[in-house]
Amino acid sequence: KKILQKKRSIHNFYSKKIDRMKGVKILKERKYCKSNYWLNVIEINKNYFKINKDNLIKKFLQNKIEARSLWYPNHLQKHLKKFQKYKINNAETMFKSCICIPSSFSLTENQQSKILQILQKYSN
Questions:
Q1: DSSP, res 18
Q2: Contact status, residue 103 vs residue 5, Cβ threshold 8 Å
Q3: Residue 38 main-chain phi, psi, to 5 deg
Q4: Computed from CA positions of residues 101, 71, 55, 16, in that sequence, does the dihedral angle turn out positive or negative?
Q5: What distances in angstroms separate CA 112 from CA 14, 22, 28, 83, one per listed residue?
Q6: Contacts 24+ apart (CB under 8 A), 119-122
Q7: What pLDDT is stored for residue 54 in this prediction?
Q8: Which of 7, 8, 48, 84 might form a disulfide with 23, Cβ 3.0–4.6 angstroms?
Q9: Is the separation of the CB atoms in 101 and 67 below 8 Å?
Q10: What does 104-119 look like in DSSP terms, one character per residue?
Q11: Rounded to an integer, what distance in angstroms lies between the CA atom of residue 119 and that of residue 18?
Q12: Contact (Cβ atoms closer than 8 angstroms) between residue 73 and residue 13
């Protein structure tokens, strides 16, 4: 329970700031479920954000912040191409525009603020 509360707190801290930024949004839980916020995922709108996803990840890494892309979609992986697949365009769209930002239980508000400052720098 303590871990879930902390993870929700981290997400809420991010959400308050990101919701006011242009060109970036944080993915939120759906009304029909309750997220454990294992990951916090942001989506970059390339039309309104000053840099693309890959360059933003590089900026985070330059500032010693571990951030990464969403996983490469299974249906595009060479060793899985022979298996059945459906039209799952959203997976490709999400992969091209989403980044996982730090979500560790031990993350402090100061660390989150540093992450948010970088996002704010590139938000329009």
A1: H
A2: no
A3: -55, -40
A4: negative
A5: 7, 18, 17, 40
A6: 119/17, 119/18, 119/21, 119/24, 119/42, 119/56, 120/17, 120/21, 121/50, 122/23, 122/49, 122/50, 122/51, 122/56, 122/59
A7: 95
A8: 48
A9: yes
A10: -TT--HHHHHHHHHHH
A11: 8
A12: no
Stretches in the chain below the pLDDT threshold 50: none
The whole-angstrom separation of Cα 30 and Cα 19 is 16
Q: Cα separation of 73 and 70, whole Å?
A: 8
The residues pairing with 112 across neighbouring beta strands, listed in sequence order, are none
Please tell me the predicted confidence (pLDDT) of residue 19.
Answer: 96
DSSP H or E segment with residue 15: helix 2-18
- CB of 18 closer than 8 Å to CB of 116: yes
Question: Which is it for strands 40-44 and 24-26: parallel, antiparallel or unpaired?
Answer: antiparallel
User: In the chain, at which residue ranges do the beta strands (DSSP E only) sit?
Assistant: 24-26, 40-44, 68-69, 98-101
